[in-house]
């Protein structure tokens, strides 16, 4: 797009001075999740499509936990049998029944094997669900991107958008896989262990449980603090990624203007904020386990003393002390795990909030009864169009023009006059504030955007090619085109000769930046792509600005052939290239100040004549 497009975006800032690059005001320190409960509720609704799988996860997780819980009680009975058998042997009243103990241990081993098998099955199912959720999130985000209005991406860095697809979705995937299963097993363990402890001794259970309010208070305080920093960590992770992506994309410019120090300074600011928020969140969440262990040890000592007293009083068996101590140890473990999971849930909520914020962004409006494009020709009319990127700053105040099918329309004017803005409105990248744009008498708002844009072929000043072969890049204009049609389009664009000289010809793979061909060659490829698309309306935005004069003349001839019978909009700074235009729209400060062909406008001796003659003053 030509440079004036950026000048007309009050909401848009330079990438080098916003967000992570310039420190920015995003993600202020101490920012909390906007609505924790709402984010978790939306996540639960999103995952409800896998409720059958979750049901099996719950069943197998509970089964695995229950079979594991009964183990210490059985082992305690074995200890009691050994102790009583040993005492009987000492008193010469009997001995140890090893066969009975052996059968009990065999049953215990079977229970542990079943518990492991159930755990394996629920882990397999949960991993499958979490990956499906991840896949679905990425799919919906990808589809959402295609439905988003252009101004969203012009007010966000690439890194901020990419962070939703990568970091936030990855965080959801990892935390879902770990936290959901952990919550199920931990809750089951707490209930099951509490029941088993009560079957042994109510008094000892009461002593063990009395330590919970202390740990709950401490953990609750830590969770409240860590939630703030988890949100900030996710926010600034996107900023840092955005800066890295921007600097990498403009590395040559940074080098050329000696901007390394400024880039490093801006990165250090964002990275430092990320470091502190990540450090605080991870440290606080890491404090949960030692706090739980400390409180658990206090309960362990109290239980050991009380258990010994009860054995002496013959109220419990020796093996019951062993079982109970194991349960006390195990009882603290699920509580600590829940505390740890709660920290993960804070991170999950922060990530889910950012993902759902993106998925709930306002989309481009869809026509209810869209106009069919099969019989559309290319009669275009601008009817009192008013537009501003911000409603309070109208830059196109009152624009009207009527273009007949097959006409070549040139849009000229100084930088920032609004030339590219007119094209954006025609393509419905933005909607007009007032007035209307008509194609064959139909308001463009009554078309589906995808079908509307199929009427247009665009060649922009800023080329876009993707990582793939030259053949694939040209065929992007018409997915079902044959190799012969692609080659014919390349010949029409005068690109065939240079393609033939490349190592692999049409099968040469362009890298991600398409830097293995020159800027002029990239422009030729985009022109070939537009020729192959065979559109009804052409938009050429400085299409020959990156090629030499001789190639420009050849391309101009090819374009003249291509434009025959098609309505064409040509944006040009070099006015000598559009002298044969049927209609020239002269723009200044967003308004059409003059209309007419080349000769008519020169005779008026107005703004166009001034622009045209200024190009020859320096030469003269």
Give your account of this protein's structure.
The chain has 21 helices and twelve strands. The protein has 620 residues and is of the alpha/beta class. The chain has a domain at 4-13 and 33-359: ABC transporter transmembrane region fold, CATH 1.20.1560.10. The strands form three sheets. It has a six-stranded mixed β-sheet, sandwiched between helices. A four-stranded antiparallel β-sheet has the order 2-1-4-5, with no helix packed on it. The radius of gyration is 36 Å and the shape is elongated. The two termini are 31 Å apart. The model is unreliable at 1-32 (pLDDT under 50).
Q: Under the CATH scheme, which class of the domain at 4-13 and 33-359?
A: Mainly Alpha
Q: Taking Cα atoms only, what radius of gyration do you get, to the nearest Å?
A: 36 Å
Low-confidence stretches: 1-32
Determine the N-to-C terminus distance.
31 Å
Task: Please state the oligomeric state of the protein chains shown.
Answer: single chain
Number of helices: 21
Strand order of the largest sheet: 6-9-10-3-11-12
Tell me the major beta sheet: 6 strands, mixed
Structural class: alpha/beta
What share of residues are in beta strands? 5-15%
Name the overall outline. elongated
- Please provide the count of β strands: 12
CATH topology of the domain at 4-13 and 33-359, anyone? ABC transporter transmembrane region fold
User: Roughly how much helix do the residues carry, as a percent range?
Assistant: 55-70%
CATH architecture of the domain at 4-13 and 33-359: Up-down Bundle
Mean pLDDT: 79
CATH superfamily assignment of the domain at 4-13 and 33-359?
Answer: ABC transporter type 1, transmembrane domain
């Amino acid at each position: 797009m030509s440079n004036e497009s950026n000048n007309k975006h009050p909401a848009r800032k330079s990438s080098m001075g916003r967000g992570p690059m310039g420190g920015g005001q995003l993600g202020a320190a101490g920012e909390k999740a906007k609505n924790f409960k709402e984010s978790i509720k939306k996540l639960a609704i999103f995952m409800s499509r896998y409720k059958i799988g979750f049901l099996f996860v719950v069943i197998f997780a509970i089964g695995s936990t229950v079979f594991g819980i009964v183990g210490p009680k059985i082992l305690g009975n074995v200890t009691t049998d050994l102790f009583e058998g040993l005492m009987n042997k000492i008193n010469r009243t009997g001995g140890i029944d090893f066969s009975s103990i052996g059968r009990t241990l065999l049953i215990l081993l079977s229970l542990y094997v079943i518990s492991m098998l159930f755990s394996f099955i629920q882990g397999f199912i949960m991993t499958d669900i979490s990956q499906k959720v991840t896949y679905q999130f990425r799919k919906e985000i990808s589809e959402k991107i295609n439905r988003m209005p252009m101004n969203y991406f012009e007010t966000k860095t690439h890194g901020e958008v990419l962070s939703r697809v990568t970091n936030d979705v990855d965080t959801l995937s990892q935390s879902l896989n770990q936290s959901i299963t952990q919550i199920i097993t931990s809750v089951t363990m707490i209930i099951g262990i509490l029941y088993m402890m009560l079957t042994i001794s109510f008094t000892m259970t009461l002593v063990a449980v009395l330590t919970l309010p202390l740990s709950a208070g401490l953990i609750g305080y830590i969770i409240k603090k860590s939630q703030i920093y988890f949100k900030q960590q996710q926010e600034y992770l996107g900023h840092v990624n955005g800066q890295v992506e921007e600097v990498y994309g403009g590395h040559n410019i940074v080098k050329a203007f000696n901007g390394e120090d400024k880039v490093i300074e801006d990165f250090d600011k964002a990275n430092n904020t990320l470091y502190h928020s990540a450090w605080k969140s991870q440290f606080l969440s890491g404090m949960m386990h030692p706090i739980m262990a400390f409180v658990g040890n206090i309960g362990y000592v109290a239980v050991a003393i009380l258990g010994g007293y009860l054995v002496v009083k013959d109220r419990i068996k020796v093996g019951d002390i062993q079982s109970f101590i194991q349960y006390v140890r195990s009882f603290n473990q699920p509580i600590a795990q829940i505390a740890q999971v709660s920290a993960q849930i804070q991170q999950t909520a922060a990530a889910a909030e950012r993902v759902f914020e993106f998925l709930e962004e306002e989309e481009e409006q869809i026509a209810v009864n869209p106009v069919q494009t099969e019989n559309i020709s290319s009669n275009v009319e601008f009817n009192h169009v008013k537009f501003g990127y911000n409603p309070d700053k109208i830059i196109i105040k009152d624009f009207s023009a009527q273009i007949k099918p097959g006409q070549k329309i040139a849009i000229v004017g100084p930088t920032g006059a609004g030339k590219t803005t007119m094209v954006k409105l025609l393509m419905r990248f933005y909607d007009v504030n007032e007035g209307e744009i008509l194609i064959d008498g139909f308001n463009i708002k009554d078309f589906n955007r995808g079908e509307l844009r199929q009427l247009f072929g665009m060649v922009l000043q800023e080329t876009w090619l993707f990582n793939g072969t030259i053949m694939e890049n040209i065929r992007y204009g018409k997915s079902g085109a044959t190799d012969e049609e692609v080659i014919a389009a390349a010949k029409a664009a005068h690109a065939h000769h240079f393609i033939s000289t490349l190592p692999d010809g049409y099968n040469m793979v362009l890298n991600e930046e398409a830097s293995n061909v020159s800027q002029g060659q990239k422009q030729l490829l985009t022109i070939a792509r537009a020729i192959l698309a065979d559109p009804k309306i052409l938009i050429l935005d400085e299409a020959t600005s990156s090629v030499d004069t001789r190639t420009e003349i050849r391309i101009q001839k090819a374009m003249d052939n291509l434009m025959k019978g098609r309505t064409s909009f040509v944006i040009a700074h070099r006015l000598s290239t559009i002298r044969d235009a049927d209609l020239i729209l002269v723009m200044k400060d967003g308004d059409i100040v003059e209309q007419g062909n080349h000769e008519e406008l020169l005779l008026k001796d107005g703004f166009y004549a001034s622009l045209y003659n200024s190009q020859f003053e320096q030469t003269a």
